Amino acid sequence: MTTIKSDDKRIAIIGLGLLGGSLGMALRNGTWHRSGWARKAETRNWAIANDVIEETSDDVDEILKKADLTVLCLPIPAIKTFIEKHAAAWRSGSIVTDVGSVKQSIVEHAEPLLQPRGVHFVGSHPMAGTEKSGHEAAFPTLYKNAESFVTRTENTDPDAFNTIIEFWRGIGVKPVELEVEEHDKLVASTSHLLHLLALALTQTALDCPPEQQQQRYSGCATGFRDTSRIASSSPRMWREIIENNQASVLITIKEFEKRWKHLREIIESGNFDEFEKEFAHGKELRDQWVKYKKW
Amino acid sequence: MTTIKSDDKRIAIIGLGLLGGSLGMALRNGTWHRSGWARKAETRNWAIANDVIEETSDDVDEILKKADLTVLCLPIPAIKTFIEKHAAAWRSGSIVTDVGSVKQSIVEHAEPLLQPRGVHFVGSHPMAGTEKSGHEAAFPTLYKNAESFVTRTENTDPDAFNTIIEFWRGIGVKPVELEVEEHDKLVASTSHLLHLLALALTQTALDCPPEQQQQRYSGCATGFRDTSRIASSSPRMWREIIENNQASVLITIKEFEKRWKHLREIIESGNFDEFEKEFAHGKELRDQWVKYKKW
Known about the structure:
The structure is a homodimer of 295-residue chains.
Chain A: E1 10-14, H1 18-26, E2 33-37, H2 41-49, H3 60-65, E3 69-72, H4 76-86, E4 95-98, H5 104-114, E5 120-121, E6 124-126, E7 147-152, H6 158-170, E8 174-179, H7 180-206, H8 210-219, H9 222-228, H10 235-243, H11 246-268, H12 272-293
Parallel strand pairs in A: 1-2, 1-3, 3-4, 4-5, 7-8
Antiparallel strand pairs in A: 6-7
Helix pairs in contact in A: 4-5, 7-11
């Protein structure tokens, strides 16, 4: 039995930074009893004082024991070690999900540790975030209109899977089902690549001799602000994401380089009719996506 | 005598799209008498009806004749042909500037046509814009907190140059002086490159087999929205910009590729400590710039 009774269902939010803190805020006035935990006592106190969670404990196992659903809002390596250390705390039938930006390495780690204990792991990845991190950056509408990937393996318990689907729906997030391997390839091209590009373009625009800096600062305007925004993300977090999705990221890098080479060649050869066509095609692709998102 | 008397100074805004329309709006309640012209009568009517300009004419030469200062807010090739066709309309002592994203090809074209007639050309490039175009996209605060390059050549009239500097200051834009050649190299790395990258990343993320499209749409979230925003710009306009700055753009492309190659190699080799260092360096560069801009 993995279905949670709605009258007394308890959620445990582990990690109360941007994603975990915002999740607790999004669940305010809902049907879940919100418990939570963060490594630092000061973050736990902040979360209680600001109605991010209703209950906490110095001993995280106390929180896990009572949880019907646990959402691990930790960095990728911390998700793995947390499950290792605390696998015994969850009771059989409990459901665990996470918000990590990669899924395969997490799910492969979690399933063998939890499944033998009757604890159901379903990997999630809400497409929500900003370039900021930490609980100070949390806000109640972070998940508004977001979509969340909910991943499946051959071991996934169907009821647990449905519970996670409904959980995301409950806070206005559109769940998108897919296989774990598919997920990691997909986000390599829709998210991970972009962070590498934002980094490289920031370096190209701003890493210059000191005497050029003032002019470069003036030359970088709103276009730079937006294309480079995610370069202000956490270096540690992005190291962990790329490290845990190396193979798919390298495939996407190749795909990007093919397209980049074509653009460079048409500029080199002065074929600006072709350049205009390519630009129009990119604009059309993006404008269609904007329509879909209704942002 | 190039100084304009403040009691009866007349500005002519030629082209009333995003940049020209927004300029007219920014000059409301100021000391300039605002005249203007656009190719389409319907745009001219819109501009009069919405207090973007106070005066227009079917015959643009009538507008130019009376202008103390003319701001050409047209696409790059149109700026050049406009000056060719209408050089005789300006009176001696009149000052002409523009808002084109490249300067060398414009200034080299304008100076020999205007200087013999005593008309002073000073190339400007306000770092303001959005991915939209046309007068419908114009808004009064487009130039707010922007910086504008004001370019100099060995032929530049110092008084005319100062008038342009003060003109931008008058609408709250910070003028930044530099040589024409410097300008084109600079914006290749702070603006033109970014448009090429936004295009290539949009294609990589969204140009896929139809059966993958739905998942790609879901995988593209706020990070994609911002890094790709300028890929929704006008293909014609960006063709013209890149075409008119080909040499500098190709130099910047090489600079980007050097940095990109380094990032790819450290990911390939699994040197994620180095990757984290690079990311931290990029973040620091961007965060410093954000502080400078106070946005």
